[in-house]
């Protein structure tokens, strides 16, 4: 598997001592086992009906029929007012429709029912970032780290935010942790974090580290123009014998 290359890379001690992706921000989607939480008006029958509506809404959401998805998911929440996964999917649908206010409202309602819902915190952070509310996004990612210390997404989000404001050393610190936790989970999302980390090293003029990380990221992001430009320049600087910045 591709991630095994990174395990070897990590074992060599190269990970640390020695908006960049150019892709649309991707929501965290609840898993197939929805949390059917009884609301004030809930009953076993209404929960079963809500599950059917939720499944149909999720299918339409996946197919890009956002209006149809919203219709089914709203019905699901009406049947079960505590159905947080349906609320989370409503947030995703509204965000993809460009209605950030409605998306924020549904994530907020989800968190009122389930304050430990890290899916809602992560997706709400995407809205805050789109609105330029980086402080609010930072607080949400910190909350995810507190609730789920082994979840790499909180650290990855922190790394993205600090890279966005050009605090590359701080970004690298969080991405180091994200990479390790992605590796622990055997997740190929590790390549996204490796790409960002390589870009951090490029900006920090740590040419050797930049080349190592960016070359690894090519396995998934090889045609990304930002990666190719940073990798080419890092190779040129390294080949010219230009010293890397000292930490």
Automatic annotation (TrEMBL):
SMART domains reported in the protein's UniProt record: TPR
Repeat as UniProt keyword: yes
Membrane spanning residue stretches: none
Keywords on record: Repeat, TPR repeat
Mapped TPR repeat ranges: 50-83, 84-117, 118-151
Protein name: Uncharacterized protein
Organism: Spirochaeta lutea
Lineage: Bacteria, Pseudomonadati, Spirochaetota, Spirochaetia, Spirochaetales
């Amino acid at each position: 598997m591709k991630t095994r290359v990174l395990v070897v890379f990590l074992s060599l001690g190269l990970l640390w001592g020695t908006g960049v992706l150019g892709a649309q921000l991707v929501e965290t989607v609840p898993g197939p086992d929805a949390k059917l939480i009884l609301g004030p008006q809930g009953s076993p029958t209404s929960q079963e009906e809500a599950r059917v509506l939720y499944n149909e809404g999720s299918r339409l959401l996946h197919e890009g029929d956002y209006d149809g998805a919203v219709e089914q998911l709203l019905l699901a929440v009406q049947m079960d007012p505590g159905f947080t996964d349906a609320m989370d999917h409503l947030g995703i649908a509204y965000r993809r429709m460009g209605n950030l206010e409605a998306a924020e409202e549904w994530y907020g309602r989800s968190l009122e029912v389930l304050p430990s819902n890290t899916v809602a915190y992560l997706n709400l952070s995407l809205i805050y970032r789109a609105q330029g509310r980086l402080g609010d996004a930072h607080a949400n990612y910190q909350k995810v780290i507190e609730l789920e210390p082994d979840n790499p997404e909180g650290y990855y989000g922190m790394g993205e935010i600090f890279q966005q404001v050009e605090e590359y050393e701080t970004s690298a610190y969080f991405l180091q942790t994200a990479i390790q936790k992605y590796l622990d989970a055997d997740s190929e999302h590790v390549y996204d974090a490796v790409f960002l980390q390589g870009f951090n090293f490029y900006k920090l003029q740590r040419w050797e580290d930049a080349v190592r990380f960016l070359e690894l990221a090519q396995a998934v992001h090889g045609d990304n123009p930002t990666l190719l430009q940073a990798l080419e320049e890092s190779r040129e600087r390294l080949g010219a014998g230009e010293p890397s910045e000292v930490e």
